[in-house]
Amino acid sequence: MRNLVEFLAKHNHWFVFLILEVFSLILLFQYNSYQGSVWFSTANAAAGKLLSWEADVESFLSMSKANQELTQRNLYLEQQVKTLSKQLTDATKDSNWVRRNQLDILKGYHLIPAQVVSNSIDRHDNLITIDKGSLDGVKKDMGVACGTGVVGIVYLVSPHYSVVIPALNTESNISCQIRGRGYFGYLRWFGGNSKLAYVEDVPRHARFRLYEWVETSGYSSVFPPGIAVGKILHVYNSPDGISYRLQVELSTDFGKLRDVCVIDNKPVLERLDALRAAQDSLKPKEDK
């Protein structure tokens, strides 16, 4: 103890210097926007790199199981495609109909593959970090999906990384509809179970059944229509009694989320820009 006191007394000027340096840096970055933004960008890039290395190690260790799951899913999807293609060919009497329409659908969307490097599912403000950024074409407000359904919406973008607000965030609000029915609402999550969410504002006159699928509606610039959201488990009245609240089992398992795709939906963005321009042109001009 005596040696420690002597050491501190002997080198006290160095400790005072370090404390003053730390204090000055805190003041510099906290009260100067430019320096703060530089610090945030640098720290975000460094943290993203470390998280990327950690995710690479975890991905390598779980690669065998992931490959087995992908193989099984590919076999299932191949059988499903064959069945649907046969049904469409029998209905249309045209063997090229399926190929032409698949190409028409896919050519409208540019998909940017990415990997999850950071994820959480046990908070109210869960966030996901992916290893693609502005240099890869990712922009704010783009939709993110995986092989099983909806993931979330891009919130912040840096050159090499992006932060996504997932469906498991109390601020998330995704437009969706009941598949084959046309009734739409908004997907919300209120915390708790990571497999359950709710579709709000479904009209009272809507007709549907339990275990029917909910999918994206395509009414926004974020997601194209038809991306899976989940299955209906229960039906409740909304708090105001005006609409229905549907409890859905999410099709995406956020606890095992690894590979995702960012959706660059340029045609829908162009359509919405044209709609906004038309709405602006119809607004009455202010008196000068």
Structure description:
By secondary structure, the protein is of the alpha+beta class. It contains 6 helices and 12 strands. The strands form 2 sheets. A 6-stranded antiparallel barrel has the order 1-2-5-4-3-12. Strands 6-7-8-11-10-9 form a 6-stranded antiparallel beta barrel. Strand 6 and strand 7 form a beta hairpin. The protein is elongated. Mean pLDDT is 80; it is low at 102-106.
Question: How would you summarize this macromolecular structure in one to three sentences?
Answer:
40% of the residues lie in helices and 26% in strands.
Number of strand elements: 12
Q: How far apart, in Å, are the first and last alpha carbons?
A: 81 Å
Largest sheet: 6 strands, antiparallel, barrel
Describe the strand arrangement of the main beta sheet, using strand numbers.
1-2-5-4-3-12
- Which percent band covers the strand fraction? 25-35%
Spans of at least 5 consecutive residues whose pLDDT stays below 50 are 102-106
Q: Taking Cα atoms only, what radius of gyration do you get, to the nearest Å?
A: 25 Å
Supply the helix-strand structural class: alpha+beta
**Global shape:** elongated
Mean pLDDT: 80
Helical content band: 25-40%
- What is the chain-wise order of helices and strands? HHHHHEEEEEEEEEEEEH
**Helical segment tally?**
6
